[in-house]
Design a protein that fits this description.
The chain is mainly alpha-helical. Among the domains are: about 120 residues; about 200 residues, MetI-like fold (Orthogonal Bundle), CATH 1.10.3720.10. About 80% of the residues lie in helices and about 0% in strands. Helix 1 packs across helix 4. The two termini are about 60 Å apart. The relative contact order is 0.08.
Length: about 500
């Protein structure tokens, strides 16, 4: 059995080495003619485009030729009909001696004129067909020029770019590389000796279980953060984003520009974000805590009502943003309709510098209440009932029991709720983007919205990265304070 496993492991490793060799071979082929894989794909794409243009041109020429033959036959027939009608009209007028003969001749002549106009329309149709052919020919010529510009390097490879082994290696170069790595690693772990060594070390097994999560965090969390910080120290914009040689480190210049710029949008965004965060967290926590106290008690329809409250947290944020945008609408919004019952005039909630921020805060409060309620309710369930029984015997009731027992006992849960609420609220983007997009007059422009506008609307990527880094630093400081507070609480 072990011999078979060893043989299988060796075969898997050899298959991986073959894949790696083919990937390296493909890379060396492209390197020999100074091409990258993207250049290769671009060249093949240009060729496919040219061939497709030719196919369309041939089809268009065939269609135009058929139309030409039909129109030409119709034109010849109309000319023939014109001559016959003219002759008949002449005979009717020349032979006839009364008014009826004259009317008959005039009618025939009118028909002949109509046929003449129809022949002119046929000639116009032919001209349009010729113009269409010319357009197709020009388009095809442009496609061939694009093919010629990129096909020179391919010609040096001297093999069929579609049906050869070399072309297949180039086409699947990256896939071969990844497959080779996976097969080699799998072959190593399939070898009985390696597996036995792993089994003897529990610590190694633990590392293996942690490794996928660690790799994921490094690739999709750590790397973007580091890249964003590095980008904030450069002068990258739309003019040099694809040219690394034109990107230079400029130190703290982007950060200075953010805070010394004449319009002061960065400071205003931080202020708006703090107002939005504090206003949302205060009401989310207060209402969530009251609901947690309510649902700690059992009463009819308790589970149903608690589940219904969770709907606001389950709905996607963009959908919630659209709902509140309609609700706060100037005309037809349900909130203005409700206020109209009491004689209050409609308010431009999302377009007013005074009411836009309260409107988005209300929307965010509605979204965050279930999150606060669930976490606080979980904390409340950890308090032993015996403590409340002892407090009741000692005469502690109402607010005394709340502030002396309940709140101190769930302090870790409260700290977690406030910290997570601060993080989630401080970095809110989609809700405000959907409802106001930072307006009016930047009154609801948060740091996340400001960073987005810099990077993806003004295409100042380094400035946007600097704004995002500032937001990250603020959240990091808040997280450090939370960790310190938790440690002090544990020591006490």
């Amino acid at each position: 059995m072990k011999k078979f496993q060893s043989f299988l492991a060796i075969l898997v490793c050899l298959a991986g080495l073959v894949c790696l060799t083919c990937s390296y071979y493909a890379g060396s082929i492209l390197h020999s003619v100074g091409l990258s894989r993207s250049d290769w794909e671009s060249a093949l794409s240009s060729r496919v485009t040219a061939v497709d243009k030719v196919r369309k041109m041939v089809s268009s020429l065939q269609g135009a030729l058929s139309k030409f033959e039909e129109d030409d036959a119709a034109w010849v027939q109309r000319v023939s009909d014109l001559g016959a009608s003219a002759a008949e009209a002449y005979e009717s007028i020349a032979i006839g001696s009364d008014a009826a003969a004259w009317d008959d001749g005039y009618t025939r002549w009118s028909d002949a004129v109509a046929e003449l106009n129809a022949s002119d329309a046929a000639q116009d149709s032919l001209k349009k067909s010729v113009k269409n052919i010319n357009r197709q020919v020009k388009s095809t010529a442009d496609a061939f020029r694009a093919w010629e510009e990129t096909a020179g390097s391919l010609a040096e490879l001297h093999f069929d770019p579609d049906h050869s082994f070399q072309a297949s290696c180039i086409r699947f170069m990256q896939l071969l590389l990844y497959a080779g790595i996976v097969l080699v690693v799998a072959g190593v772990f399939l070898y009985p000796g390696v597996r036995a060594a792993i089994a003897r070390s529990r610590q190694t097994v633990g590392y293996l279980f942690v490794a996928p999560a660690l790799v994921f965090l490094l690739l999709f969390v750590a790397y973007p953060i580091v890249y964003n910080v590095v980008l904030s120290f450069k002068d990258v914009d739309i003019t040099n984003i694809n040219f690394s040689e034109n990107q230079h480190f400029i130190g703290l210049a982007n950060y200075r520009s953010l805070f010394t710029d004449g319009d002061g949008q960065m400071l205003g965004s931080i202020k708006n974000t703090l107002v939005f965060t504090v206003g949302s967290i205060f009401f989310q926590f207060t209402i969530g805590f009251l609901l947690a106290l309510l649902f700690r008690n059992k009463f009819p329809l308790c589970g149903f009502i608690r589940g219904a409250i969770m709907i606001s947290w389950l709905i996607p944020v963009t959908v919630s943003g659209l709902l509140f945008k309609f609700m706060f609408g100037m005309n037809g919004g349900i909130i203005n309709q409700f206020l109209g019952v009491f004689g209050i005039k409609p308010i431009e909630w999302l377009y007013s510098v005074d009411f836009a921020m309260p409107a988005v805060i209300v929307a965010n409060i509605w979204i965050g209440i279930p999150f606060n309620m669930v976490l606080l309710l979980t904390g409340l369930t950890t308090i032993p009932p015996e403590i409340y029984e002892s407090a009741e015997i000692d005469g502690a009731r109402g607010f005394r029991r709340l502030f002396s027992i309940t709140i101190p006992m769930i302090k870790p849960a409260i700290m977690s709720v406030l910290t997570l609420g601060f993080v989630y609220t401080f970095k809110v983007f989609d809700l405000v983007k959907v409802m106001t997009s930072g307006g009016p007059v930047n009154r609801t422009q948060l740091v996340s919205i400001f960073a987005y506008k810099l990077a993806f609307e003004k295409y100042e990527y380094s400035m946007g990265a600097a704004a995002a880094t500032i937001m990250f630093i603020i959240l990091l400081i808040e997280g450090l304070f939370y960790i310190k507070a938790i440690k002090e609480d544990e020591v006490m």
